[in-house]
Structure formats: structure tokens, C-alpha cells
Amino acid sequence: MAGADNPLGQLNPGLLRQVAGALHPNEVASSFKFASKEVYTCLRDYKTFKLAREPSQWFCSALTSNIQLCLAEQPWPGHDFVAHWGRPEPWRALNQRQRHRLLCLAASSRHPPSLDAALEHCGTVVKSDALVSAAAVGDLEACRQLLVEEGCHWDGYTVWTAAAMGGHVPVCQWLMNVTDMCEDDADLGRYARYAEHAACLRGQREVVAWVQQWRGGLPAVAGYGNNSPRAEAHKLATAAAEGGQVELLGELLAAAAVTDAMQRREVLAGVAYGCPLEALQRHYGQWGTEAAAEAQHRRALLLRAVASPTGDWAAKCDWLLLQWVSSPGWAPASHGTARLDEELWRQAGGQPDYLQRLERLAACGIDVPAEAVEAAAAAGNVSAAAWCLGLPPLLRAAGWGQAGQQEPASQVLAKAATAAGQVQVLRMLRERGVALSFAHLLNAAPERRDCTSTSTERAFECLPALRYAAMEGGLNEAAAEAGADWSAVFRRAAQHGADLELLRHLHEQRGAAISFMDLVAGGSEEQLEWALEALGPAGVSSQASGAALVESALLSGNWAAAEWLRSRGLAVDPDNQQQLQQLLCSLAAEQGDPLHIPALWWLLQRYDLQWTLECREALDACWEIGSDGGWPVPVGHRLWLQKMMQMGDEALAEAAEGA
């Protein structure tokens, strides 16, 4: 459209950039800049799409663990995503972990063509994170597709929590129906409690009402606990308080009064954490004399206020301290608060004024706990980490495996910064004479032979620290002179999923041996091409047989690597029936869990197996392992296993008839 016909084309560049600045960058890059030739000329630099939403931070003492959601940014550039990622070529450079993350983003995009494109080309087993991402945004059709059709893994806690936090009642209703199809003797009451706690945290009244309605249709159950669908009233109130849901908190307390002293302390601690000062003053006025009678209770309240995400955290601290002017000292952390304290500080560490919070804590006479120091390093807060260097040796809270052991703050910082990949903190420590040791690296990146030992995809947060050590000389001189085992670093990086630049540097500059077995576990097609060129076919076969290589890929769920091995003639010989049969039996019955049903399905879709009685019995063993061990077997896996059993039965029957 000509500029004279399009009002936008008549705006000067400055105004156009102002308009673009008021829009989401994805909108500008995908549509707005194409409004006219003049607009495109001005905004041609808008080329990059943001696909991932910034992760939200939250703390809830009633939930067993925090979950990190991988969610798509909105507006989602669906057309452009499909145009780029709907082809096999871009995926070849991505390791398995990166491909799975992209799949999770597509699952939460609410754009079916994007999810279809990702499923077609991702080349990875579908772990439960993808289902969680779809549930978190309320995309019921995506949930059904992933779980039933695509053989997605199952993690009941995370998917129920994500759906409830998002306020998605239809997804919760669907989960109520499918959970029994994924878990034998599923504890629906436990999941309903998770959902109710998560809904209270986020103020999702519709989910709370739905859970209560569902519970009302059940036979009366006395008491609470793991076998009861009833959520304790004070737990719900605490979750609402921690989420800053002041109005909902009032409604919950009005509906079910909290009279027990210990329960009141829990609720008040939640108020100190998530609610504004006014709410804290109101509830403290009702319960404070009883709830803050002992030193350990006062300590818990002050810690919650210091770590609070509210803007008035300092005012809450000041007000609490005024109430305790005549109170003696502080108590150490108790056994029951160790896990909660770690979660609490992890969330607080990301606050921009975290240093001021630590200083306030120290000024009150409370020893800064090791978990708070770890949080500074893990969040990459250089100023807070530098301040922590001046602390005396740190004592672990009671209840930890290292309880009672003292450790220098410098080592606590180094370990935490390495594990989180916070290179800025590592550089600061090096400037202060605290260099990275090789033990720090290996502890942060443990061996990971079987990537599907869990149904979720693990992050590889320490990767930047590995790059820093290998490519920037971040290790201390003693470690360098002693001859660091860079081959061990290569193995770990390949297993977890690293970039080709780092792997090449480790091999060419650090002398690390290329481990082809580990590359097929977590690597990309591009990395496998590089390794094959460097080693040659003979070098690859000298490390492992084709059967061992394809088993490594299948155990890790790295379908792209397994396909690549087939295409290069490096996988199991399709004519070697003994190898194929042994591979099937190993995947089905020798892993100690039923998590490799998708790998079995992949194998039988691509190889013409001659069934034996041992192969068929291995499938029975796989089912028994799941049933006897209490493993969840998702509905899609059950369907695949039943089909494979039928394939085996038909093949054996046909062979018997022909004998």
C-alpha cells in the first residue's frame, strides 16, 4: 500500500518507533512492520521473536515442591514459527534438551499448527513437561493429543498443580477422568488437595469451588492426611496468604475458623510473606501474642517478612521488630523448616534489593543461613554474593545431610554459582581469590546415563559454568596444573545437552576424548556429524556396537539421534534378529521401570522383528514392573503396550500355524 493511502506511512520514523514500542515485539516483527513500505523501512530491525515467557516466581509451603513452567510468550508468532520450525533442517542443530524445550513452548502456544510442527520434527520422547505446559494455559485439546496420541509421560503432581494455578476447571475435570487411566489405585484426593492449594495460592476461586463440589459428592471421610480428599483449612488459608490473596484469605478464615495455635502460626507466617503490612497488622493483632510467643516463631515470621515479594517488606520487618522490643534473641532453624527455608530463599534471591534484605537480617542479629548465601549466588546477584564473602563459616540448618557442618561462605557461593551457571559470580569470586575447582564442575554436572529415569526433562543450568571453565580459563591454577579430566566434562556435557562450540573446544583445545555413546544420548544431529567426521566410522565402532549406540539413544528418548544412526548405517543391523530381540528385551524388562514403552514403540515401528516367546514375555514383564512398583503408566503408553502385545501374540500364533 502506498504511503499516501496508508496513514501509518505518513508518520515520521520517530512516531513509528513510538507506536512500535507500545506494541509487543512479536506483533511488530510478525505483522505491524509490514503495514507499508515506509513502516517496514523504519522497523526492519524487528527480526527476533520472543518465544518463551519469563518464568514466574512463587512460594507455597503447602505444596511438596516448586515447579518451573516452560510457557510460550503471547502473542505467539504462529505463522512464522511454522514457517521456520515446520522443516527438519533447523532442528538438526538443537540437542535433545533444546528440542524438548521448544516442544513445550509449542504445547503452550495455543496454536495447533505449531504443536503439530514441533511433534513432527522434534525427534524426542515427549516428557511430562509438555503436558504440564499445555495444562498451564488451559489447552485441553493439546493435553489430549499429547497424553493419548503422542505417548507423553505423566507426572500427576505437576500437571494438576499447573492446571489449578492457571484456573482451568475443564482441564482439572479432564485430569480427574484420566488420572485413573495413568495410575493404578490413583489417589485422586491427594491431587485434589494439590489443586486446591495451588488455586488458593493464585486466587483461582472457580477451581476451589470445583474441588469442593467434587469432594461434596464423596462419602464422608473423617480426618485429614494422605488418604483423605479433605484439605486442612489452615493449609488453604496459608496458601492464599502466601499468594497475597487477602480477600480470599478472609473468606477462607470466615468459612472455617483456625483455632489451633500451631496452625495459626503457619497462617500468620504466610501473611508475613505474601500479604501487605495492613493485613499482617490485622492478623497479628488477633493471634500475635500466641503465634509469636517463642523465639523460633518470631524468627520464622521475620524470615518470611525479609524474603517477602511485597514492596513493603522492610516496613513489615520494622513493624514486627517493634512488637518484640523486649523479646530475647533468636532461635536457630528447626528440623521441620529446612526444606521450606531453601525454597523461601531461592525465591527471594531474585529480588533486586536482595543485598538490603541480607543486611537487614544481619542487623537484627540473625545469622545469615547457608541457604540465603546459596540463593545470592544462584540468582547471579554479584553485590549480594560479594557481601556474603564477609560472613563467618556457615552452619547448615538442622534436618539436612550436612546438618551441623560448617563451611566457608566462599565455598558455598562457588558451589551454588557453578550449579546455577552464574559466571558473573564466578568471575567476582576469582577476583577475590576464590577460583573454581574441578570438583565444583563435576558435582554440578553429574553423570546422566539414562535421561528418562525421570518423566520430566531436567535443566542443565551449570552449562555456562562449564563454558567458563573450559573456554575462559576459569579453573584455579592448581586444577589446571594437576591435569583436569576434561573427558569427564565432555561426557557430562554431551549427556545433558551442550552446544557444538563447547564440545569442539573440549576436544580440540582441552584434549577431551569424544564419547560417541554420550553424544547419541543428549546431542544433536549436527554434533553427531562432527563426531563421525572426527572419529571416522572405525573410530565410532571401536567405542560401541551399533546395538549399544541405538540403545543409548532410545534409553534417552533421543529419537533424532536414533534415526541418524539408522541413516548412517551405525545402528543395530536390521538383519541381525538376535540383536533386535536382545534390544527389545533390554528396553522392556531390564531397566527396572516401565518408562521405555515409547522406545519400544519406536523400535517396532522401524524394524521388522521376528517375535520370540522371550520377546513377548519381556512385554509382560514391563507391565508387571509398572504394576508391582507403583509406577504410573500413562494412557498412551498403555495403548502402545497393548498394541505391541497384540503384535507379538499374532506373530507367534502365525508362526505356530506355519510350523
Automatic annotation (TrEMBL):
One Pfam family, short name: Ank_2
Molecular function per GO: phospholipase activity
Organism: Chlamydomonas reinhardtii (Chlamydomonas smithii)
SUPFAM superfamilies on file: Ankyrin repeat, Pseudo ankyrin repeat-like
GO BP annotations listed: ceramide biosynthetic process; sphingolipid catabolic process
Transmembrane segments: none
Recorded GO CC terms: cell periphery; endoplasmic reticulum; membrane
UniProt protein name: Ankyrin repeat domain-containing protein
